[in-house]
Every structure is written in structure tokens, then in C-alpha cells.
Amino acid sequence: MFIDIADILIRSGDGGDGAIAFRREKYVSHGGPEGGDGGKGGDVVFVVNPDMTTLLDFKYKRKFVAQDGEKGGESRCYGANAPTLEIQVPLGTIIKDKETGKIIADLSQRGDKVVVLRGGKGGKGNAKFATPTRQAPDFAEPGMPGEERQVTLELKLLADVGLLGFPNVGKSTLLSKATKATPKIANYHFTTLEPNLGVVSLPGINPFVIADIPGIIEGASEGVGLGIQFLRHIERTRVLLHIVDISAMEGRDPYEDFLLINEELKKYKLDLTDRPQIVVMNKVDLVYEKEALDDFRKKVNALGYEDVYEMSAATGEGVTEVIKACAEKLQSIPVMDTLYQDDDFYVPEAKRFTYEIHVDEDGVFVVSGSFVDRLLNAVNINNPGHLRYFHKVLGNKGVLQALKDMGIEDGDMIRLNNFEFEYYA
Length: 425
Known about the structure:
Blueprint: E1 5-11, E2 44-48, H1 57-60, E3 63-65, E4 85-89, E5 93-97, E6 103-107, E7 113-117, E8 148-155, E9 161-164, H2 171-178, E10 196-200, E11 208-212, H3 227-230, E12 239-245, H4 254-268, E13 277-282, H5 291-302, E14 308-310, H6 319-331, E15 356-359, E16 365-368, H7 370-378, H8 384-396, H9 399-405, E17 413-416, E18 419-422
Parallel strand pairs: 1-3, 2-4, 9-11, 9-12, 12-13, 13-14, 16-17
Antiparallel strand pairs: 1-8, 2-7, 5-6, 5-8, 10-11, 15-16, 17-18
Protein name: GTPase Obg
Family: Belongs to the TRAFAC class OBG-HflX-like GTPase superfamily. OBG GTPase family.
Pfam families: DUF1967, GTP1_OBG, MMR_HSR1
């Protein structure tokens, strides 16, 4: 089954908590603090696996969570860092932030590897809080929390040549003749349900990858049929091989079909119409009036398409000539990276642990935010030593100065979550 889009939840590991420990030796009456730091939480990394060709694995597993760092230990022993969580994806996968749709990374090269979420830092043990005036701190720092994000994985095939055309014009037959691919071939009146890839390797030409792109029918750019799901696969191709059924056996006008397909490309992305197109009149073995071939060629040439070939994929007539034309065209077209605008990319928010202050209807100065949660988790407000550290952090982080700027006076109440206390300068 070919799956080319998937939504998953990823989460990096929390940092390990710092340890609270003291030396406990028989002949040491006042052992100092010796709590070690916690370990770092695991990162979440996406890495290209060239052997993968679909996002099928993510249909059954949609949540990926890295391990937390270990807690600190006694004797200043640091907790172990958690291992990195590597998520393997196919070559050509784009990672997007699900909420904004912005691009986090485009893994389009072999060996590409990107850190999407970083694990939380480990908390400091109580040994790090010892000072000449606070020689036995009985508190430690909790580990920093990891990050969590919903991402969309979007696979865009990496093919040199993309096959275009309405259903039943012979794309799958050409792919089977020119490569070792084995697409389903029959007189279908509907489009192929999934893309097919094949490698063309003939004597005298450089090998290249060709893809049968399904779903390109009238209205595809607006979501008719399966088109909107598969038009993305054309974006990376360097040459478009546009096949029409010149026999008109299905009752369709080949020239009208040619115009309709190009109109869908234009509606989807304007630059797709600028890609070099090789036009192929297929099923010439079923045409008895050769004037039809000349008439179609003249109309297409008038639109600026000079490379027009005759072929019968069923009998093999003209297949080699078409493949060689693709190889020659590719030699003159450099491999280009996908072009993005600056606003296409996801920009992470400023680092966590911020706070905001407002005055409620009772005149209480309320300090809230992730900074508050972290600070209260680190101390025991019923312990005098912890409380002194608590006030010092408020001063160091600028909270007390911000309260002064807002006009706080002695005796006013301050609330951090469920903890309230009076302010005195």
C-alpha cells in the first residue's frame, strides 16, 4: 500500500531531576551536599532511510516518545543522558508543523538527518546550590520538560521524469516496457490508485527514474478524484512526459485532453507549466488516418512544444526513441533543489519559561506562566531555606522589578498559582 501523507505526535524526553543528597560518613559530622545533576532527555531526530518508499509504517504507529533523562545520584553522580530517538523516513519526505502547515525540514538528500525536538536539560543537584552562606541546601532543580508537537509527514517522490496523461492512455504500459516496474495494466476507465516508480537503464544512456503519477484528470488541482493527493509528486521531476491517446478510441479528443492536463498543472503551481514537456502520441498502431497525427503535432507545436513523438507502448514501436529523448533532455537540465519562500518555513517560538503579570479584580498581583510552574516545582515553600532561594530567583529573573514598575506597594498580595504572599521591599 502506498501512503504518502501521515500525521504523527512526537515528544522529546524530559530532563532528569537533580538529586538532594548529603555526605553520610561515620567520621564526618557535617557532610556537605553531594547531589548530582540529572541527565538530558532524548532528542527526536528524523533520518532518511533510502530503502523506504512509503509512509505506511506511520499508519499503524502515530506516537513517538523519546526517553527521559535519569535522575541525579549521590556522590555527585550525574544521571545518564537519554538516547536519541531516531525516526526513519523515505527519501523525499517533508516534515511540517501540523498546526501552521509550515515546513520544518525537507529531507531530499541521502544521508539527511534533522533534529526536530530537543530533549529537556537535566536539573542541577543540590551540590550546585552550595554557597559560603548556604552550605547545606536541601533543594535541587527539576529537569526541564521535553517538547511535544504534532507534525505532518508528506512524501514527494524523487523522480527525474513524471508521466502525465488521462487514465488508459498507456502510461503504465510504457513504464512496464521501459523499466522493471510491474504496474497493474488493463483497460481501466479510472486512474491508477498509487504512483509507480521504475528505473530506466538502457545501453548508451545514463539511468534515470521515471514515475507514473496518478490522479491527473480534469479538476485534479481542486481535489477532483485523487489528483490533489498526487500532484505534489510532480514538483520534483525535471521532465514531464505527456502521453495522449491519439487513437481517440475512448471517444475523447487527444488535443483537448492535452490542454486540460496542462491547465491543471497551471492551477496547481504556475512553475509546473515551465517544466520541459515531451509529448507522446501513443497507440499509433490503432490510427488509420495519418492526417490525425500531423494535425495534432501542428497544434502542439503551435503552443511551443517542439518534442512530439509517435509511439505504440503495446507493440513497443517508438518506445526506445521516447526513452532516449528523455535521457537527452535530462542531460541539459541540472538537478535543482526545491525552491521555498522564507515564510514557508516553521520558526520555533521563543524558548519556554516566560511569565506575565496582571492585577486581578481583588487587587492581587498575579504572576503566571511556565516560569512560575518550574519555580514552584523546584522549591518547598514551607521550608525557610527554600523560600530564601525562591525570593532570590524572583529578583534575578526581574519579576520583582516588574512588580515595582506596575506600582506594587508594601502589603500588597502576590499570587503564583496557589501560593500567595505579601510583598515587602
